[in-house]
Amino acid sequence: MTIFTSSQKAQPTVALFVSDLHLQASLPRTTAAFLEFLQIHATQTQQLYLLGDIFEYWAGDDDLVTPYNREIADALKALQQHGVQIFWIAGNRDFLVGTGFAEAAGLALLDDPHVIRLAGREIALAHGDAQCTDDTAYMAFRAQVRQPAYQQQFLAMPLAQRKAIIEGMRKNSQDSNQNKSYEIMDVNADAIGQLFAQTGTNVLIHGHTHRPALHVLGSGESQRLRYVLPDWEYDIDTPRGGWISLTVDGVLHRFDAAGGEIG
Predict the structure, then answer these.
(1) Which of 2, 118, 134, 248 holds its CA 20 to 30 A away from the CA of 85?
(2) Domains of the chain: residue spans and CATH
(3) Residue 8 has what pLDDT?
């Protein structure tokens, strides 16, 4: 299945940024799109940044025994062996990814947020869920499950039990989100301002909200740019997805589900 076409750009690509693929075996077209993206586009860059929720959920690195998960890890490892550096920031769905998966996939785990210095730019990277501070119920849940003691206790359970617990959490989350407004589930402006201050940058790339856009904040020397990555879904009549690239001249480019550049 061919979804993307490789196009020659005036400037070489040095980094690609994607997030919120929510990969799972029940979405074969989305999976195929990601594997094709790796082969066509990611092989043409120096670095690939995976900014969270790459998997629909991750129950622990011992779940690499599942053939689907191993297929994704092997595809990333092949890209790394091709000479591409791969970096990972945890999302709210796959924060249990650890060193076992990182080694199997040939990637490096990064803290959230993380600042890169590349192509003459300083860019802050984040998943984005930590800035959704208006969703107080989620923030309380996030604080609990990100504690090392909680994770250690959870990962000590049998894999099947962990998966059953996660399925229950996903169902509860879906039910709860139906009663929340988009504004509550979006990032908080003050939290974004704090993130810019914390990182000392004027460019931010994040995902999580599934509301792709380029937000221009302020003007002149105080202008800040917030790029929001799209989620991926190719198993529907009108596919959605996309990524951001950084070219060697320091310019950021946004691409849609078909690989067309967004103005």
Answers:
(1) 2
(2) 13-262 (3.60.21.10)
(3) 46
